[in-house]
Amino acid sequence: xxxxxxxxxxxxxxxxxxxxxxxxxxxxxxxxxxxxxxxxxxxxxxxxxxxxxxxxxxxxxxxxxxxxxxxxxxxxxxxxxxxxxxxxxxxxxxxxxxxxxxxxxxxxxxxxxxxxxxxxxxxxxxxxxxxxxxxxxxxxxxxxxxxxxxxxxxxxxxxxxxxxxxxxxxxxxxxxxxxxxxxxxxxxxxxxxxxxxxxxxxxxxxxxxxxxxxxxxxxxxxxxxxxxxxxxxxxxxxxxxxxxxxxxxxxxxxxxxxxxxxxxxxxxxxxxxxxxxxxxxxxxxxxxxxxxxxxxxxxxxxxxxxxxxxxxxxxxxxxxxxxxxxxxxxxxxxxxxxxxxxxxxxxxxxxxxxxxxxxxxxxxxxxxxxxxxxxxxxxxxxxxxxxxxxxxxxxxxxxxxxxxxxxxxxxxxxxxxxxxxxxxxxxxxxxxxxxxxxxxxxxxxxxxxxxxxxxxxxxxxxxxxxxxxxxxxxxxxxxxxxxxxxxxxxxxxxxxxxxxxxxxxxxxxxxxxxxxxxxxxxxxxxxxxxxxxxxxxxxxxxxxxxxxxxxx
Length: 552
What we know:
It is built from ten helices and 28 strands. It is an alpha/beta fold.
């Protein structure tokens, strides 16, 4: 059995090694609230709660060092006076080689669980998690090295045991708030196991970019997960900058991770006491506090996808959930140095941008599009399979000066070669070398509406399994979107998400702010293409700007 040693990362002492698992939980003296981090300038998931989707019926697995405290008031429904009632919505399981009923609650895992699905507390009624109606299953995958050595160890078989139990418990999402050292090329046994369970069992994995390293760490290097960086506040209730400790990308093999970023500073969360709460997260932007937002948003989306209100099949596929989350991110986020990232689709610090649950829901709840079809809708998604050497095409009707945002993602295929071998039957343990990875070479291509031989996009690296374009449309017409499989013998299931974003009114020169340059444009075109009505609109919109694409 292969084990790795790790140490707890605390404010007083930081210890690192190539085999280190870092669990990051630092305390801030500032006091905001969990409710702000789920608000419009945080994950924006409260807007989806208002529509009636809160994660009900969805089970989320938390794989971490120890356990969330299942007796905490945050995990109970509340009576009319705000007091806990009924049974806990948090559960625990010890996946190590110790007694499976061993229960080891700690503050870190209780806080992560609270950000996922807190139902608030008597004194904190509004500090609810991203998916306050979801069920939490907390899995412990580490233990002390020995009776005399308090350093923690972790083994692949324990991670596998946790995942198998999560499937038995009906979990559709796995949140991981821990990190391991070592190579981050996606080919460690840890990352291969995660990608296998995503590919084989349609689990949505929310993984942390990690903290205090020069690049993303394991498990954040997995292909099939949604890797999340940590954001800090730039103004009251506004999460607009990457924290100084959130690991940047790319991976060691050059892939574009992290995928997204989420709030991680100043959140009132439950800790290891039945009614105890405290503020967590500093300007370091610890990703333990950001990745549960991703898992919670995924739970809210799946509660819609599994509901009678969803008319479409396959909107619960993990590729679809990943595509709509990445496509709808808010891109104009400062990097860890406070530098604006305007105009960059992917940035090594914030990935594709801040998660936005409402925009994500709007795309997922829009009609599904099918290959060889045309749509006039402003947003939507697709899920299909493209064979090797083949292509699928879609047509989207765009208008000049709109922005067309399109994301394509597909899973890395992982095959467990020895799963059904005679020597493996009966124990089902994944060993080193038994998981074989392959990745289809898909390309996302968008074509000029007047010339379908002229692609207006450039090719991505063949090593990434997610591609996103954010294009300013220069003409009105039918834009052809192709998913091209360049592989010689590898088919792939894939998901596409798209959205057309309207320009600002009175932004006549399309620079995402209404100012003197637009007045100059109006003057030059007076009574030619612009008139008094345009002048009135200019006055009404004066100095407004699109925060997604303009930094004042």
